Amino acid sequence: MNRYSNKASVAADTLALMRLSGKRALVIGGGGAGIGRAVTNAFGAEGAAVVVADIDADRASEAADALREQGFTAYGVAGDVRSLTDIEAMVAGAVEKLGGLDVLVTVVGGQVAFVPAVKLHEMADRDWDTIYEVNLRYVARAVRAALRVFLEQGSGGTIVSVGSVTGFMAAPQQAAYGVMKAGLLSLARTVSAEYAADGIRMNVAAAGAVATAVANAAGDGSWVDEVPVGRLGRSEEVAAAVVYLASDESAYMTGQQLVLDGGVSVRGPFS
Ligand SMILES: NC(=O)c1ccc[n+]([C@@H]2O[C@H](COP(=O)([O-])OP(=O)(O)OC[C@H]3O[C@@H](n4cnc5c(N)ncnc54)[C@H](O)[C@@H]3O)[C@@H](O)[C@H]2O)c1
Fold first, then answer.
1. What's the domain of life for this entry (predicted)?
2. Cα angle value 241/247/253 (rounded, 5°)
3. N or C: where does the chain have the smaller number of CB atoms within 10 Å of the terminal CB?
């Protein structure tokens, strides 16, 4: 394998254009489908060597196989983000398989895929905990494990979390989801303050409504009318932002979020 790329046969001028050449990345959760799959594909195309994790082992290996068929370095692993043991195994496994780690991406999250969308007074206590586990607790755990690796390696590192506009707008019937997504930005800010001097950055890619299986199941789609650009976002558009935030092009950006929402969050009352 070429030291500067995950693809031995890539020409030097092409290599220079690959924004993640030489980066070793772990995409945690959701690597098999939706936004996570798009991130995995984009990372391969941009030259990163990738370990992709998903609770669904078949999806994870399918995503990795597709990259390998194109000549890239990729491994699929099974893991449940609700388990601390699994999180630590995913990070340690990525380090072992890739010979180190430069980029961590956390993707899994949501509310309606896990518990019912209801107003706060109707929400079961256990459901709040579930939303915490699959949106924020695992991210903090994975970030902590990655930080330990980054600090030991001494060559910095980049963390990108997939967030949501619900983290800074009201989230009717998804209060817990909004609170957890808000927590991602808080985490990114603290990571930036504590570790920028070590060359470690964390940012959030905050999406609006994206056309994935979850979004399609969440309603009749009539709310597309509320999106100024007139359509749902594409997973590939979120993945492009994740690539940017993971790459050295965003080297001066940390503790921030990049919003990809078709204009929803800035739409005024008179538009
Ligand atoms: N789809 C949207 O409209 C939208 C909007 C804003 C933000 N987001 C965010 O994007 C991220 C991904 O959403 P998506 O719509 O692509 O989801 P998705 O349902 O399309 O993909 C979810 C993936 O996560 C995996 N997964 C589920 N539970 C897991 C677990 N416990 N451990 C490991 N893997 C698990 C599933 O197998 C699946 O492959 C989430 O953080 C979500 O909050 C999505």
1. Bacteria
2. 75
3. C
Strand locations in 101-145 (E): 103-106
Active-site hit among 177, 195, 244, 252: 177
Q: Which residues contact 41 (CB under 8 A, 6 or more apart)?
A: 63, 66, 67, 239
In angstroms, the CA 114 to CA 218 distance is 12
Any atom of ligand 1 within 6 Å of the Cβ of 56: yes
Ligand 1 and 59: CB distance under 6 A = yes
pLDDT digits (tens, 9 = 90+) for 181-226: 999 999 999 999 999 999 999 999 999 999 987 666 656 666 788 8
Domain 12-262, CATH homologous superfamily name and number = NAD(P)-binding Rossmann-like Domain (3.40.50.720)
Tokens at 143, concatenated: 């970030």
Q: Compute and round to an integer the Cα radius of gyration of the chain.
A: 18
Q: Is the pLDDT of residue 31 over 80?
A: no
37 pLDDT more than 80: yes
Q: Is 198 in the pocket of ligand 1 (CB under 6 A)?
A: no
Six token digits for residue 268: 């005024």
The reply to whether 177 belongs to the active site is yes
